[in-house]
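Here comes a specimen:
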Amino acid sequence: MFLLLCVADLNVEVLSAPFVSDRMEDLPDVDVALVPGTSKFLKSGYVNQYFAYRIDAAVALYKSGKVKHLLISGDNGRSEYNEPEDMRISLMEAGIPDSVITLDYAGFDTYDSMIRAKKVFGQQRFIVVSQDFQNERAVYIARSFGIEAWGYNAEAVTSYGGLRTQVREFFARGKAYVEVLFGVQPTYLGEKVLID
């Protein structure tokens, strides 16, 4: 088990490395950026910095002209919890037009978000906007299924998470590796959605 996790971690890191960057100028111009959802608030009630930094990075990417549209993919599995809608509101507050935002309410994890971007939203080429560790995993998943994906790294969060985040990511990479290996279907697919 531990060996499998180590192989998965190495695969994700090595295969994604050429396509993930902190620098916008390293990335191509594409039509769509995909922003994986996360909760807006921590249990303490404070704003989640992972959320805030992803919003900042997505806004910067859009305003630079690198992308024309934002696909927000997150969890809306409960009526009182809506990652995509929270992100949409924050993006609009930052000056992003609602007309260039599309919401995917069934991006329950990174794997589902990547597969749904292709199969539901018809996207074969996009930039993922998240922290570096998630971008590496997202790009690995996407490129394993023939999607041209790049990662634009949002600012890292250093004030909390730490070891817990690293351990969680280590296991998440193992899960993604197995899902890719067996071509697992996402939780939901559904009807196709056109992004203009």
